Amino acid sequence: MYHVLLAVDEDEGRSTRIAETITSLPSASTDVFVSVFHCFVDNPAGASATQVGSVRAVQGILEEAGIDNQVLEASGDPADTILEAAAEEQADAIYLGGRKRSPAGKALFGSVTQSVILGAELPVTVAGKTQTTAE
Predict the structure, then answer these.
(1) In a domain, 7, yes or no
(2) Would you give the DSSP letter of residue 54?
(3) Per-residue model confidence (pLDDT) at position 111
(4) pLDDT score, position 71
(5) How far apart are the first and last CA of the chain?
(6) Residue 135 pLDDT
(7) How far apart are CA 61 and CA 81, in angstroms?
(8) Model pTM above 0.70
(9) For residue 41, which of 85, 10, 70 has the smallest C-alpha distance?
(10) Where does the UspA domain start and stop, copy by copy (predicted)?
(11) Are 32 and 69 in contact (CB under 8 A)?
(12) Backbone CA torsion sign across 109, 78, 24, 50
């Protein structure tokens, strides 16, 4: 079983795009297990990750594709907690969404994405926001 840690923030577009990338993996419905991970930077109300819209959207996409998953959460520095969760869960890969960048900024990732890429000892896949066309 190929275990993916899918890091999800509050941006539903980025989150659903990376979930769709996972559903396109070969034999995803039978050979992939996903840990949907959300990090709260600040959570004074004590919310659960399952209350975050992007987490629910990702779960819906994965379940529709027949991919088994679980939801994990933590609080703290997003890059550090993503790497810690991947190690604890013994993930085979980390998937996370990238942000739209200006032409000059395309050579650089966001700070969380860059920190995860540089700190990971396993493959990291970054997918951008789904493009929509104006009609």
Answers:
(1) yes
(2) H
(3) 83
(4) 97
(5) 42
(6) 41
(7) 24
(8) yes
(9) 10
(10) 4-126
(11) no
(12) negative
Q: What domain range includes position 54?
A: 2-127
Give the 3-state secondary structure of residue 35.
strand
Residue 47's domain is classified under what CATH number?
A: 3.40.50.620
- Six-digit token string for 121: 């000892």
Determine, yes or no, domain membership for 132.
Answer: no
Structure tokens given for 36:
């949907």
- Is 105 contained in some domain? yes
Given this model, what pLDDT does residue 133 score? 41
Ranges of residues in the chain with a pLDDT under 50 are 106, 130, 132-135
Question: Quick count: other Cβ atoms within 10 Å of Cβ 22?
Answer: 24
**Distance, CA of 106 to CA of 127 (rounded, Å):** 13
* Count of domains forming the chain: 1
Q: Could you tell me if residue 135 is inside a domain? A: no
What string of DSSP letters covers 63-115? Answer: HHTT-EEEEEEEES-HHHHHHHHHHHTT-SEEEEEPPP--TGGGGS--HHHHH
- The reported pLDDT for the residue numbered 56 is 97
